Amino acid sequence: MSRFEGKRVFVTGAGSGFGRRTAEKFAEEGAAAIYLVDILQNRLDTVTKEVKKRGATAVSMCFDLADADACQQAMAQALADDPLDILVCNAAAVAEERFLDIELESWQRQIDVNLTAYFLLARDAARSMVKQRSGVILFTASIDAQGHSLKFTPYCVSKGGDVSLMKSMAVELARSGVRVNSVSPGPADTQQSTDLVGEELMAKWRKHGFPTVPLNRLASVDDIANAFLFLASDDASYITGHDLVVDGGHTADVYEIPNE
To answer: Is the confidence at residue 157, as pLDDT, over 90?
Structure first.
């Protein structure tokens, strides 16, 4: 398939997980240039090689998305070459902590990375896209935007903000030919999840399933990347302002009788 022949794409959190696989798939489907953002250079080096191997130009950008100036400079650099066609804001900061123990520094970092960076990158990309009267902006939200996960308050709040920002932008930009949507993953098999719970528990879930999800497994990186590529493609040309939940039925399963 060549749904993205010649397209220019910008992906944050591209060093691993959803972001890396999404970038690779854009390259596989014909993207001409992909800007890759991550805070870890060694991960960027790996995904840069994979993107180039698939035939796309890869531009590595290593910086902290909590730095507002760096966000704006990176987008300005990308737009200085040519207009962008697709922006995927995917990176996330997350910390496990009880609400009463949250310090301002932790709260601020998660809001900065998970929400403010999305706003800054999307705003600047959109300013360019409206001049071309075309473009797609996509966010990684989360099913946590629909409620709460114990000990993850700043993350849940920031993801709720991402969905709200996405809908606001979708309405504001629709008449300028720019579509804006989000993907809300459920529990997933990613490096970030492994960092949170440990390799031993993740290996158990891979082998025996994830019973709180009706499909009884974690989302794969391909599950989420495929959702992004669909929303970025012309197949989704009449979809904007939508949060696509990809969670194996998790949020549909309201109540089950507990088993021992």
So the answer is: yes
